[in-house]
Amino acid sequence: MDIRHLQYFIEVARFQSFTKAAEHLFISQPTISKMIKNLEEDLGVELFERTRKKVILTDAGRLILMQAKTIDNAFENLNTQLNDLLGLKKGHIRVGLPPIMDADQIIQILGGFHEQYPHITFQLVEDGAKRIEENILQEELDVGITVLPTQEDRFDHFFLLSEELEVILPPAHPLAGRKQIRLEELKDDSFILFNKDFVLNDRITSSCKEAGFIPKVISESSQWDFIGKMIASNLGISILPKSVAELLTQEVKRIKVIKPSIAWELAIIWPKDQYISYATKEWLAYTQDRLSTDARGSASS
Q: How much is the mean pLDDT over the chain?
């Protein structure tokens, strides 16, 4: 048995299919089937119950899967730490980005970092802030962007940006001509929100409750441009960060929210008390310095 046996086993358990796991690993199905069979013989247990539609972990398989993931993570960390020890300027960073933000600033930072470290690669994963935090804790992401406040006992962080949220209305809405809107004036409207993986969903709901009503949510999505199209089609209204609202190409109206005004702060987070790779440390240091430089430039202009 070697590490590949365990890695192939993890992928079959993940996809519940030999075929899909083989496609993901770019190997043939007979190869992966043979590897799993060899692993079962080495361990003396059956790992999967094979059915016509999918494979299901046995009790022994579930137990071994937990240990296999631990061993695989330890193996990956070993390679990473050896590279760090040897001073190799290469690596891979997995970054979680919420699709509800204007990513231009982060993309520019990544571009500048790439010029200095051309052999460090990136994987950008779009998801809600809640899921990003979960994936960092599960070591599926290295860093991510989330909404403050974050779980300070689990994450270190530094500030990224703050911005106001705006009401987005269809042009025919009775309040579309206003310069500002009290939140309570929207109590009879139908809301289109980001789904519950996004902290924005919680932020809007709690602000509406503060204004004296529970929003009537008719639809949820994970894509801001789709929400914009729904609003333009008179299906409802929404509340979005100002930078994202400015990206909407549909014919909609953007209006300031007051009483209560709604704002949020975003931060870059990484896990406490876990190994952080050389590449990730370098990117965090570069990003923090870049943000400080940009802030000083904005203040002096």
A: 88
Beta bridge partners of 93: 122
Pick from 117, 125, 159: nearest CA to 142 = 125
Whether the Cβ atoms of residue 235 and residue 296 lie closer than 8 Å to each other:
no
Give me the domain span that covers residue 15: 3-85
279-290 exposure pattern, b = at least 16 Cβ within 10 A, e = fewer: bbebbbebbeee
Domain count, the chain: 3
pLDDT tens-digit readout, 162-171: 888 999 999 9
pTM over 0.85: no
| Closest of 207, 163, 202 to residue 187, by C-alpha | 207
Report CA torsion sign: 139, 143, 149, 154. Answer: positive
Instruction: State how far the Cα of 195 lies from the Cα of 199, in Å rounded to an integer.
Output: 9
Residue-wise pLDDT for 45-70, tens only, equals 999 998 777 889 999 999 999 998 98
Domain co-membership, 8 together with 72 = yes
Q: Are residues 95 and 147 in the same domain?
A: yes
Residue 50 exposure: Cα atoms within 13 Å on the Cβ side:
7
Question: Residue 46 is encoded by which pair of tokens?
Answer: 């059956």
Q: Do 147 and 231 have their domain in common?
A: no
What is the residue whose two structure tokens read 């929404």?
Answer: 238
**Residue pair 47/9 in contact by the 8 Å Cβ criterion:** yes
